[in-house]
Amino acid sequence: MRLFRLAKIVSVSLRFGLDRMVLDADASGRLARIWHLVYFWRGFSEPRAVRLRRALESLGPIFVKFGQMLSTRRDLLPTDLADELALLQDRVPPFPTEQALAVLEGFYGKPIDTVFDDFERTPVASASVAQVHFARLPDGTEVAVKVLRPGIERVIEHDLALLDAAALLLEKIWPEGRRLKPREVVAEFSKYLHDELDLMREAANCSQLRRNFKDSSLLIVPEVYWDWCGRKVMVMERMHGVPISQTPALLAQGTDLTALSRAGVEIFFTQVFRDGFFHADMHPGNIFVHQDGRYIALDFGIMGTLNEVDKSYLAQNFLAFFQRDYRRVALAHIEAGWVPAKTRVDEFEAAIRTVCEPIFDKPLKDISFGKTLLRLFQTARRFEMEVQPQLVLLQKTLLNIEGLGRQLDPELDLWKTAKPFLERWMDEQIGWRALVHGVKEEAPAWAGTLPQLPRLVHQALSDAPRQQAAQQQRLDQLAAGQRQQGWLLALVGAAAAAVLALELYRLFG
């Protein structure tokens, strides 16, 4: 079966001329000329990026998802390929309702009509990994039921094995292959896919985001109904809203698009700098708008996390970049450990200035945060920076947010909207607020330690003479050892001198 699938991949690659992308990288051009003679009848009018997108669409949903993931790796891919792959849509025909019912009844152990008061047989959304049906719980609550596609695990393992084999081959025959690290990219893709296969993980992500934005005036996150959830089934609150891509419908319900675009930026920076936990798949299909103007988030399979080092790195970079403090940008990379400590700051600063200074010919509102981050990544790669997966997800999400924001309001000044968040966050990390926050964080530990403090002090004072005696004994032993070594060296020296004297006497009488 795998051989047939591999044969199809090779056939599709030849049909869309993907072999030319590899052959064109041969600097000598000899291999390309021979190959063109063999396939002399082929001609391609479409650009290589379009041919690659169409080839992935022909190979099926797992390859489509792989192309979507590749489009986020703009630090590795040429711009034309990344832009075209970003157009891939994860849309596949729904699987039969009978199969969905079999999965649900196998999980619940009883007929579906005894689990739900009503279950709509026609799915409302379908993707490569799962599809969604609307239903109603016995108490009348409207819910959305997400069901994993039957047999998808086998399909994924099969295609991942082929992708890994293709990546290994690419590393061996393509000069650029090792730089692009195809096997590492496939391993990263494998992790994302396996995360999406566990709907309990997605439910937990949804629950965490809902808790982070409880009572928010900007974002609505559906409630998860845990009693109905499992690894292959997720049941959450049904959301009512207008897809964010349907601008006429938004205007018809009275939504303020300018306020909506700014709210999107505020939500993103709140997730990143307040929570360090952000929705990393915010394409238009996953965002609705409620009648009251709040965002509605859906699909929580891919989430990004940032630690304090990541957040500090990002805030310092953005603030320093827009202040044209390129030395601070360079130092932020080194202090975060993203580039080696041995890196010369002046050389790194000069490289960043060369790349970033031309950007400031544009008005601030026209400067792309996502592309700025990408430029920093690309420059830092020359100084041995390994781009972290969480930062790649962040860059992808930032590009999505920018695109959505400027689609809603072409005059959106992302910097003006984001700057207060960055400055406030930096103030909270460095100023008196940071001190108060640190005290609050450590107070529970102090509360447990303070009552023990007198006993610990008494114990330390009591142990001090004994520790000093033990330390003095170790020093005496070390001194004795050193004296012994000195005597041995003296004896060896004397013996050597005696041997030398005897040799001299023998030679010269």
UniProtKB/TrEMBL annotation:
Pathway: Cofactor biosynthesis; ubiquinone biosynthesis [regulation]. Keywords: ATP-binding, Cell inner membrane, Cell membrane, Kinase, Membrane, Monooxygenase, Nucleotide-binding, Oxidoreductase, Transferase, Transmembrane, Transmembrane helix, Ubiquinone, Ubiquinone biosynthesis. It comes from the Bacteria. ATP binds at V124, A125, S126, A127, S128, V129, A130, Q131, V132, K146. The chain crosses the membrane at residues 487-508. GO terms for molecular function: ATP binding; monooxygenase activity; protein kinase activity. Its EC number is 2.7.-.-. InterPro entries: ABC1_dom, Kinase-like_dom_sf, UbiB, UbiB_bact, UbiB_kinase. One of its GO terms (cellular component) is plasma membrane. It is an enzyme of class 2 (transferase). GO terms for biological process: regulation of ubiquinone biosynthetic process; ubiquinone biosynthetic process. It is a single-pass membrane protein. Residues 88-330 form the ABC1 atypical kinase-like domain. Is probably a protein kinase regulator of UbiI activity which is involved in aerobic coenzyme Q (ubiquinone) biosynthesis. Belongs to the protein kinase superfamily. ADCK protein kinase family. Belongs to the ABC1 family. UbiB subfamily. This is Probable protein kinase UbiB. It comes from Thauera aromatica K172.
